[in-house]
Amino acid sequence: MPLTDSLRDDILASVPSLRAFAISLSGNGDRADDLVQETLLRAIANIDSFQPGSNLPAWLFTILRNLFRSDYRKRRREVEDAEGNYAKTLKTQPAQNAHLEFEEFRNALDKLPQDQREALILVGASGFSYEDAAAICGCAVGTIKSRVNRARSKLSALLYVDGAEDFGPDETVRAVIGGNGG
Amino acid sequence: MKEVKKQGGLNAEIQSRIGHQLRAMYDDVVRQGVPDRFAELIRKLDGPEAAAAQIDETAKTDGRD
To answer: Which CATH architecture has domain A5-177?
Structure first.
C-alpha cells in the first residue's frame, strides 16, 4: 500500500517496541538502533508489499528479526560488549541490588540459543500470540511453544536452581569468562 | 533438554519472576519512546524510492567489515 500519513504514524508507533526487541535480541544498544534504522528503511522501501489491514507490528518485527539473523551470520555475537552498552541505554540506573539482578538476568538471557531467546521475547515481552510469533519466525506454532517452554526452563535453571552449570556456558561465553575479550 | 522438576508452586513462582524480569527489561526500553533520529527519518522519506536510495548509500559508506 502507499506510504500514507497514517501509515507513517503507525510505523512510528511501533518504533519503541522494535527498539526493545532489537536490544533484547542483540544486547547492544548501538547495534540495536542500527537494526531499527535498517528495518524502517527496508519497510518503507518495500511498503508496496505490505497488505493493508494485516498486522503491521508483526510485519516490522519479521523484517527486524531477519536482518538480525543475517547480521548474526556475518559476525559473531559481541557477548563481551553486551552489558556495558545495554546499561548505557537505560535512562535511570537501577539501584545496586536491582542492577545486579538485572545483569544476572541479562547474562542468563544471552546464554539461551537464539531460537529460544527470540521466541521467549516475542511471546513473553512483546505480547505476540503464539500464532504471530510463529509467523514472524517462519516456523510452526508448536515449535514456538516448545522453544518458549525450553527457554523458560533453562532460565529458571540458570537463575534459580543449583547445578545450573549442568547446562554449561557456550563457547563464546566461556571465552569471555576466561578474560579473552576484545 | 533437562527440565526443571520442582514443586509446582515453586516452579510457578520462578516462572512468574522470570516473566516479570523479562517485561521489566523490555518495557524499560519501550518507555524511552521514539528517539528523534527515527521520527526525522520517517518524516523525511517521501516513499519507497527514497528509502531504497538510502539503503544503497548506507551500504556504500558502511565502514564495517
So the answer is: Up-down Bundle (1.20)
